[in-house]
Amino acid sequence: MSHAVGQLGEDRATQYLIDQGVRILARNYRTKRGEIDVVADDAGTLCFVEVRLRESSTYGSPLATVSAKKQQRITYAAMEYLARHVSLAKKYPCRFDVVAIEQIPLRVTWLKNAFFSATRY
Q1: CA 104 to the chain's CA centroid
Q2: How many CA atoms lie within 13 A of 112 on its CB side?
């Protein structure tokens, strides 16, 4: 998938979250060990959101593409984000979400608490 297509998916997911009343705090937060597509505040919960885009679900749901290795990279990036934003870490509970987008037909699915961190802190 090209960078432009991936960016389009992230833009669509971000707008979907905004339409659901979520406040976007950061996009494309990158560290040496991982990346978080969207960091958001959902009614007082700090959400680390992975965006997955597929043309269709013919070969499986985009939700199923978040591997254990990908979850670990997201978790490490979230830990770094929290270390750099200590006031948020103290104020908000956190969770890991996935926004899955299928383009044909267009379907957006927001899975809250998509996975839990297995990383020891």
Answers
A1: 21
A2: 11
Measured CA to CA in angstroms, residue 23 lies from 18, 20, 45, 47 at distances of 6, 9, 10, 10
pTM of this prediction exceeds 0.90: no
Please give the DSSP secondary-structure letter assigned to residue 111. Answer: E
- Pairing between strand 94-102 and 23-30? unpaired
User: Across the 121 residues of the chain, what is the mean pLDDT of every consecutive 10-residue run?
Assistant: 68 96 97 94 96 72 81 94 92 94 88 78 45
Q: What angle do CA 9, 14, 19 make, to 5 degrees?
A: 125
Alpha-carbon gap, residue 90 to 10, rounded angstroms: 28
